[in-house]
From TrEMBL:
Example of a GO MF term: metallochaperone activity
Keyword annotations from UniProtKB, A to Z: Nitrate assimilation
A biological-process GO annotation: chaperone-mediated protein complex assembly
Keyword Glycosyltransferase: no
Name of the protein in question: Nitrate reductase molybdenum cofactor assembly chaperone
Gene that specifies this protein: narJ
Amino acid sequence: MSLLKLVGVLLDYPQDALWQHGEELLEAANDPGLPLPRRQALVQLVRELLDTDALDAQERWLMLFDRGRSMSLLLFEHIHGESRDRGQAMVDLVEAYRKNGFELSAKELPDYLPLLLEYLSQRPQAEARDWLRHVSHIIGLLAARAGERSSPYAVLLELLVEYAEGRLELDALRKRASEEPRDDTPEAMDRLWEEEAVRFGAEAPGEDCTPPTRMPARTSTPPAAARQVQP
């Protein structure tokens, strides 16, 4: 299993496939090609996830990646926000996927980072690095914010920056992250819901009040984790 494939699985919303393929994930994390400190941190993260109850792991994921916009794994949210340019960017990204035989289900958002990593894990390494280099400033800021929140997920984002740039220089981003107001507090979330009280179309909440598509729904196809781990 490639590094991009592994990181994509671990960054995705934790589902049953994660625990079902735990040994395979541990083997991939213990990659001798990685520097020893990185390998140890990656193995520790996988072991911690596997030792965590699924509901607790899912709650921790939601608390980090689904509260506020600053830690969203939807890349275009950081580039385009809610502007109309985001829609065209998604269309262009889907078309790029399709040109290389990578099809999405109707409910998958193409700019979801674990999904992008699934695609890039199937592409030549030079091409994958080039793609990630174009968004490494976003991933680096996510890494800095995750580190500021003492999240074990920070190592995954740092690995992606290293993969793209060949080095990790997050000092300026960490300083920025430390000075940012948090957008995942109850007060910030209340303000966000007031701003987004009326939403229609694909971004609207479902009838069961599940979150909008910040966490891509994958009911009609196997979850990304299952697709990635299975041979």
